[in-house]
Amino acid sequence: MTASAPALTREDEVRSKIGKVRVFGRFARVVCSVIFAFSLVGSAFILMISLLAAFGVLAPAATGNFTPQPRSWALPTAAIMVGVWLALVYQLYRLSGNLAAGAIYTPENVRRVRYVGLLWMSQAALRFAIPFAWSALIALGLIEPSDPPTLVAWLPWPEALNGFASGGLVLLISWVMDVGLYEKDHADALQRDADLVI
């Protein structure tokens, strides 16, 4: 009787933790939905203001201190960065949906965690690559020096380095999850074989 009591306690503990993960997954899914919606609406608003200002529809007084300049690099750069960010939030949304459904240790979750790590590292890589790319375009004479890659001001280097570290850590977690999932599947297969022998 004493031997079965700890097993039941452990089973109850695991069930309780799964319930907490599901609650967290539902909360995280709502948060990701809100972040995704605000990012999408905010990006569309900034794009609209930038285009209106670039074509002279808005007077400088209408935009206040925000006076976007018609730069050839600004919109493509913003589109790339926002696209990567939205893809990252979408992966987190899908992952939290799986957690809310109780699907915790699955191959799909391993894939989604890996995608989050790759997207995080891609965003960090873009923080380095974009200013270099625009500098190279200026050096080659493809764009005017009056159109400088001032992105360094809003893409700080320490933040990019943190992005590489964070993305690498998420990739490591996905690798550990993948190995653990393989070991779990292997152990389950051995247990099924043992049960068939018995």
Account of the protein in words:
The structure is a single chain. The longest helix has about 50 residues. The two termini are about 25 Å apart. The chain is elongated and about 80 Å long. The protein has four helices and no strands. The chain has one domain. The protein has about 200 residues and is mainly α.
Total of helices: 4
Number of strands: 0
Strand proportion: under 5%
Q: Which stretches are low in confidence, meaning pLDDT under 50 for 5 or more residues running?
A: 61-70, 148-154
Mean pLDDT: 78
Largest sheet: none
| Helical proportion, percent range | over 70%
What is the gist of this entry?
With 198 residues, this protein is mostly helical.
Furnish the topology, listing elements before pairings.
Layout: H1 4-54, H2 74-100, H3 107-139, H4 157-197
List its traits.
single chain; 198 residues; 4 helices; elongated
